[in-house]
Amino acid sequence: MHIYDLDTPALVIDLDVLERNIADMAAHCKDLGIALRVHTKTHKVPEIAQMQLAAGSQGIVCQKVGEAEVMARAGIRDILIPYNILGTQKLRRLTALAKMAAITVAADSEETVRGLSAQAAADGVTIRVLVEADTGGQRCGVQTPEASRDLGRLVADLPGLELAGMMTFPSNLRGQAFFDSARELWARDGLPCEVLSGGGTGLEAVSKQLGFNEHRSGSYAYEGLTRIQKSADLTPERCALRVIVTVVSVPTAGRVIIDGGQKTFESYPPVPYGLIIEHPEARIHAMSVEHGHVDVSGCNHRFRVGEKLSVIPLHQGKVTNMHDEVAAARNGEVVCVWDVAGRGKVR
Amino acid sequence: MHIYDLDTPALVIDLDVLERNIADMAAHCKDLGIALRVHTKTHKVPEIAQMQLAAGSQGIVCQKVGEAEVMARAGIRDILIPYNILGTQKLRRLTALAKMAAITVAADSEETVRGLSAQAAADGVTIRVLVEADTGGQRCGVQTPEASRDLGRLVADLPGLELAGMMTFPSNLRGQAFFDSARELWARDGLPCEVLSGGGTGLEAVSKQLGFNEHRSGSYAYEGLTRIQKSADLTPERCALRVIVTVVSVPTAGRVIIDGGQKTFESYPPVPYGLIIEHPEARIHAMSVEHGHVDVSGCNHRFRVGEKLSVIPLHQGKVTNMHDEVAAARNGEVVCVWDVAGRGKVR
Predict the structure, then answer these.
(1) Proportion of chain B in helix, strand, coil states, percent, rounded to 5
(2) Do A86 and B246 touch (CB under 8 A)?
(3) Distance from chain centroid for Cα A56
(4) Residue A87: its chain B contacts at CB < 8 A?
(5) Confidence (pTM)
């Protein structure tokens, strides 16, 4: 079936592009001499995670316990959840997961590590813990090298836990002094620090420079228009994801309405909200809930009701989270349809 | 179970607020003397649609065929889909629906009505059609009263279709001259115009003034922070929807991180992204994919890791579309959990 024969809106992956993106990132990290750990939150598709592992990723990252459950069910055996896991319900699911796979989590507080330890010890499993450091990202993370050492010591002392090392997000050279100091403090205390993990697509070399031995990249798999607009080396041909839409109305010569809006594209500024591959001079300038508004006044093409278009969405990782399935295609022909199995796993 | 005992993030409806909003809108339309047809795209929950019908709505609106299928399966027998339905796959599903329920659709082009007619005639059903008029909304819709008459005539002439009347969105007094003229043209041709349908929560009186006999309102059920900020008569107590979250990190005295971000809240500017009921002086100023960033420098309360908070989200209708289920609660106690059965029905 050709992708234009799919009912619309339809989420489609170009497999050639996806495979190239996966291979290129694996080669880039290999060249740098840093281990790649792929973040699956961008695609949430176990089949793609398996492709990434086959290309040399040493494990995966999930942002939610529910996503990790999906990936473990698909046979993946090394999962990092870089998140403070709290509350009995999630902790019980986490220890159940730890019986199926090697599970590592992040923590930045005593409350988090004590909760992890109590549940892991009660359920007879070991959870690996990375101490999360805030080195400018202003999200989670301990604030000083001393605090990282103190929390590391607590993790090392508590039952059910294994101290694995440290992590931060995003990788930033401003963190150099923090990590130099922290490593010294950890070493002085004899704390194990097997893993130093950085993150953020495009920041692999920064992690290497910081002396890290692992990097977490995710969005490169689909590649985003935003990053492409900022990079001289990237073109829209690197974007693997597209939404096939139908023109549902041509109310005026300059205006075309497509059958995908906010609930298909997760649209928000900046405009344009996506790139129409067949007519790059058309401009998706507005979206209502279920309609996309396209200014075609700059196009010579005469659009007709019922015509199909392929749109590279602006927010690729978020678009995935709106759709239950995605068709994988090669040269415009659908090869298979994958469940976005990790979609909507908010917990 | 108390709502604070739900694993987080958890989508919760305050039933008392929902029931009040439903009753008030029904009374408002009754007072105005205009029929209410509730739009279900805000909640996508059949149980809530049934509550709205019981309160006096004469039927429902769905924006997608997939949403209509969910509602028809739940026993709802009068459904308007104000959308140009195109393509064999959707048209076949539409005629299947028309065997279960009275189905009305909108159309603004010959292509759309010819497609509807061919499939309806082939499958032996009747589809009711409203001619959609663009009266300033600049989305879909015919552009002139004459074009509405010509399309109405085509609908009346084609097999499998029943001409029901006209619709527009949003209702706007600028449309007065258009509809006065269109009605005259339709009457002169003897075209039936049983329904004149306007739309938009808060625009019920505008529809009445335009001489319409039906109004489509949807977002009033949950009520949105944006509309509340613009209205002297509304307060956050009218917002039925909230997201229960957990504080997962307190990295500094002024910063709190909660376990809901863009994939929980569908957040985009303006900030703040929601109102924390327990601490309205806290400010959700940023969101990453799975974290909410809260500035608590203006709060006297000392936040602790593991604490639960109730957030009224900024974009209520869109938040619903991120979640597979919603807990219905009264006085903080969970009464039942509903599937968001219409969620993600992009087609």
Answers:
(1) 35, 25, 40
(2) yes
(3) 17
(4) 7-8, 246, 306
(5) 0.95
pLDDT tens digits for range A36-85: 999 999 999 999 999 999 999 999 999 999 999 999 999 999 999 999 99
Q: Helix B46-54 and helix B65-73: axis angle, to 10°?
A: 70
Amino acid B15: pLDDT = 98
Per-residue confidence (pLDDT) for residue B326, from 0 to 100: 98
The two tokens of residue B142 are 């015919």
What DSSP line would sit under B295-315, residue for residue? E-TT--S---TT-EEEEEESS
> Which chain B positions have a beta carbon within 8 Å of A252's beta carbon?
143
In degrees and rounded to multiples of 5, residue A296 shows phi and psi of -110, 20
Contacts of B229 (CB under 8 A, 6+ apart): none
In this prediction, residue B232 carries a pLDDT of 75
With cut-offs at 50, 70 and 90, classify the pLDDT of residue A163. Answer: very high
Coil, strand, or helix at residue B103?
strand
Residues B108 and A249: beta-carbon distance below 8 Å? yes
Contact A84 B9 (CB under 8 A): no
CB contact under 8 A, B139 and A83: no
For chain B, the average pLDDT equals 95
Is-contact B108 B142, C-beta < 8 A?
yes
Asked if B275 and B225 touch (Cβ cutoff 8 Å), the reply is yes
Structural domains of chain A, ranges and CATH numbers in brackets: 3-11+226-339 (2.40.37.20), 15-222 (3.20.20.10)
> Is the CB of A112 less than 8 angstroms away from the CB of B263?
no
Per residue in A274-287, pLDDT (tens digit) is 999 999 999 999 99
* Cβ pair B305:A141 closer than 8 A: no
Q: Cβ of B84 and A248 within 8 Å?
A: yes
d(CA B260, CA B12) in angstroms, rounded, equals: 14
Distance CA A292, CA A259 (A): 6
Chain B residues inside the 8 Å CB shell of A4: none
Among B245, B248, B271, most A C-beta atoms within 10 A, so best to mutate, is B248
Most A CBs within 10 A among B119, B139, B169, B308, hence the mutation to make, goes to: B139
Q: Which residue, among A65, A285, A346, would best test binding to B if mutated, counting the most B CBs under 10 Å from its CB?
A: A346
Say whether the peptide bond before residue B251 is cis (omega within 30 degrees of 0).
no
- CB neighbourhood size of B126 (10 A): 15
Cβ contact A138–B84 (<8 Å): no
Q: A11, A139, A257: best mutation site toward chain B, by most B Cβ within 10 Å?
A: A139
pLDDT recorded at residue A294: 97
pLDDT value at residue B337: 98
Q: Of A292, A297, A295, which Cα lies nearest the Cα of A311?
A: A292
Torsion of CA B181, B184, B186, B190, to 10 degrees: -170
The distance of A44 to chain B (nearest Cα, Å) reads 12
Inter-chain CB proximity A269 and B264 less than 8 Å? no
**B248 interaction partners in chain A (CB closer than 8 Å):** 83-84, 86, 112, 140
Per-residue confidence at A12, pLDDT binned at 50, 70, 90? very high
pLDDT > 90 fraction of chain A, expressed in percent and rounded: 90
- Eight-class DSSP state of B174: G
Residue A230 has pLDDT above 90, yes or no: no
Q: Kindly report the nearest CA distance between residue B346 and chain A, in angstroms.
A: 6
Establish, for the pair of chains A and B, how many residue pairs have beta carbons separated by less than 8 Å: 151
- Which residues of chain B carry a pLDDT beneath 50? none
Report the pLDDT value the prediction gives residue A268, as an integer from 0 to 100. 77
B241: amino acid identity, one letter? L
- CB environment A184-201: b (16+ within 10 A), e (fewer): ebbeeeebebebbbbbbb
Q: How far apart are CA A161 and CA A155, in angstroms?
A: 6
